[in-house]
Design brief:
Elements: H1 8-16, H2 19-27, E1 29-34, H3 39-54, E2 58-63, H4 70-81, E3 88-92, H5 93-101, H6 109-115, H7 117-120, H8 123-129, E4 130-131, E5 134-135, E6 137-139, E7 141-144, E8 147-151, H9 152-157, H10 166-178, E9 182-184, H11 190-215, H12 219-222, H13 225-238, H14 250-258, E10 262-266, H15 271-277, E11 286-290, E12 298-301, E13 303-307, H16 312-326, H17 328-338, E14 341-342, H18 354-369, E15 372-374, H19 384-398, H20 404-418
Parallel strand pairs: 1-2, 1-3, 9-10, 12-15
Antiparallel strand pairs: 3-13, 4-5, 6-13, 7-12, 7-14, 8-10, 8-11
Bound molecules: beta-D-glucopyranose.
Residues 35, 41, 67-69, 92, 143, 250, 270, 301, 303, 378 line the site of beta-D-glucopyranose.
């Protein structure tokens, strides 16, 4: 319309002044809601922002702080309810299915077919990126959540080896504590408690028990003696956390390990982004290893950019965003910084550091062996209602409100009423 009314001379002048591209780029923008506000996360996001800006698409940032994304989901609900959905939203697992069910998401089928996404995105992720056979989201990465991040100087100083079992872990934590350090750096927020819980469930009961309890929510598994042991172990770990843990953000807990105040943190591999951002090097300054007893299994979550239905004027930029996210070079550049590994299976591991290479190899091995499971804590095992019911019990127990036997009963009841 605007251009239609311009005279030839006017158009010529715009071209001469080089304004035509800036008019086009002013019209192209994406608004992206996410919770990547920690140093390493923000740095990784810059990779995407720059990529799009290079294509003339401006980036409208909508960060909502709060690891695990709970607050982000609350803000999103308000935005969509008021009829003003962002272009794209960082989202995890079952939340994606919920939004798809509401019929408010866009359709990426054409782009996905053109770029051959079906052949390069593993089924475990596709289960969330597609709904009713249609692509609705672009998977950015795969994080795995059953990691330990350790301060190498403390391990060297105390002559500690990487623990491979529960007993070895406790022996190591005892030594770290006795030496005057905080043994376990932890932030007391429900999703962080649940991240440790996932690992302890896997370590205590093994893959079949994880499947039965965290994914199938089988009442026998949830109410079992094994689950009681899981809660007892959680209480044991609570004894290695410092007094100020309540409400602490995960990245501040990571900083305690980085700064040699604490020995280890149990956290997903986004923690690596914080070490790298602080200039630390794997195997030199810090160690990454699987939570003892979970060496052969991987619990994962995948950040996906879910595309909402937007007006025609915003669709071209939305597709550019989706295409940028799925490009192999972006998947390498972004995940090297973020601590995760590519969502695509065809991205070479050359650019990744020792922890990244290990993460990629272990993910592939677990996938082959059938020991790759969605993380309950990070929305990939059960729908949000059940997850939140589990969170409540795990956190109440971790804060000493229940003993292990009561926690088991509460868990069975809470899950039953949330279903
Ligand atoms: C997300 C990560 C993020 C972490 C902490 C997880 O749920 O998948 O991308 O770094 O939360 O914010």
């Amino acid at each position: 319309m605007f251009l239609g009314k311009m005279t030839r001379a006017g158009l010529g002048m715009i071209a001469a002044l080089g304004l035509s591209t800036s008019i086009a780029s002013a019209q192209e923008s994406v608004e992206v809601l996410h919770w990547w506000t920690a140093g390493g996360e923000a740095k990784a996001l810059q990779v995407l922002k720059k990529d799009l800006e290079g294509q003339g698409v401006s980036w409208n940032d909508m960060p909502v702080a709060g690891g695990g994304g709970e607050q982000a989901m609350t803000v999103l609900r308000a935005r969509v309810t008021s009829g003003n959905a962002p272009t794209a939203v960082q989202m995890l697992g079952f939340d994606i299915k919920d939004w798809a069910g509401e019929g408010v998401l866009g359709n990426l089928d054409e782009l996905a077919a053109k770029e051959g996404w079906d052949a390069v995105v593993p089924d475990a992720l596709k289960g969330f990126s597609k709904y009713d056979g249609h692509w609705i989201a672009a998977p950015v990465n795969v994080h795995s959540t059953n990691w330990v991040w350790a301060n190498k100087a403390i391990f060297d100083e105390l002559g500690l080896k990487q623990p491979g079992s529960w007993d070895e872990l406790i022996a190591a934590l005892d030594k770290i504590k006795a030496a005057g350090y905080t043994a376990v750096a932890h932030g007391g927020q429900a999703w962080q408690d649940a991240t440790i819980f996932d690992a302890v469930v896997m370590a205590t009961g093994g893959p079949d028990f994880y499947q039965a309890s965290m994914i199938d929510t089988d009442p026998d598994a949830l109410g079992s003696d094994t689950m009681k042991t899981v809660f007892e172990r959680m209480a044991t770990l609570r004894g290695y956390v410092d007094d100020n843990f309540s409400g602490r953000d995960w990245n501040l807990a990571t900083a305690m390990v980085i700064n040699k105040e604490a020995g280890v943190q149990f956290m997903g591999d986004w923690a690596k982004g914080e070490f790298l951002n602080a200039g630390k090097v794997p195997d030199q300054d810090f160690l990454c290893f699987r939570f003892p007893g979970t060496q052969d299994a991987v619990t994962f979550n995948s950040d996906q950019f879910v595309m909402f239905k937007v007006g025609e004027d915003r669709q071209d930029a939305q597709m550019k965003l989706a295409s940028a996210v799925m490009s192999p070079s972006f998947q390498s550049a972004f995940n090297v910084v973020k601590g995760s590994v590519p969502a695509r299976t065809d991205v070479p591991n050359d650019a990744f550091d020792a922890c990244g290479k290990k993460g990629m190899a272990e993910l592939a091995a677990a996938n082959k062996k059938g020991t790759l499971f969605g993380s309950m804590a990070h929305g990939h095992a059960v729908p949000a209602g059940v997850k939140n019911a589990m969170y409540d019990v795990i956190t109440a127990h971790f804060n000493g409100e229940y003993d292990a036997a009561t926690a088991v009963e509460e868990l069975v009841n809470a899950v039953e009423s949330a279903q």
